[in-house]
Amino acid sequence: MFYVSLVLGALLAFVFFGASKNKLTKSMDDLAAAGLGWVKQISSSLVRLIGLLELLGAIGVVAGPVAGQLFGWAWATALGLAAAAGLALTMIVAAIMHIVRGEFKYTWKMNIGLIVLAVADVIVISFI
User: Fold this and answer.
1) What distance in Å separates the CA atoms of residue 101 and residue 116, rounded to the nearest whole number?
2) What percent of the chain has pLDDT over 90?
3) Which among 31, 95, 32, 88 has a CA at the least distance from the CA of 60?
4) What's the pLDDT band for 128 if we cut at 50, 70, 90?
5) How far is residue 123's CA from residue 95's CA, in Å, rounded to a whole number?
6) Is the predicted pLDDT of residue 57 greater than 90, yes or no?
7) Are 60 and 20 in contact (CB under 8 A)?
8) What are the pLDDT digits (tens) for 1-56?
């Protein structure tokens, strides 16, 4: 199960690292031009916070299970579980936001795919 978790975590980390990098480094105008129109409606501090939480989740889904396996740290595995659950909740909130904004017909594949991936990682990590 560890290797399954590693693959799922790597996929999640790849997606969320890229998303967080953009939210942390690009201007709000650049993000809006890239299709993230919602950034114009909230403060830039909140966008940066979302990016930071996505970055921490991306690190946690890989580093937690790896540290738990290599060093026998049960708390690290639990941290990986929490990171995967946090990313799942992030995507649930994102899906709700896209539904409210009328954008879900364009984003549903990515939203549902990442929710399923994160929930699958939660389930797999819980069996490690």
Assistant:
1) 22
2) 96
3) 88
4) confident
5) 21
6) yes
7) no
8) 999 999 999 999 999 999 999 999 999 999 999 989 899 999 999 999 999 999 99
pLDDT over 70 for what percent of the chain?
100
Please give the structure tokens belonging to residue 8: 């799922």
Nearest one of 47, 82, 41 to 65, comparing CA atoms? 82
Output the CA torsion 90→95→100→104 (10° steps).
150
Q: Is 33 exposed, middle or buried (0-12, 13-18, 19+ CB in 10 A)?
A: exposed
Q: How many other β-carbons are positioned within 10 Å of the β-carbon of residue 37?
A: 12
Say how far residue 3 (Cα) sits from the centre of its chain.
19
- Gap between the Cα atoms of 78 and 38, Å rounded: 32
In whole angstroms, what is the distance from residue 114 CA to residue 24 CA? 20
Distance CA 5, CA 121 (A): 6
Burial class of 99 by CB neighbour count within 10 A (0 to 12, 13 to 18, 19+): middle
Tokens found for residue 24: 């942390």
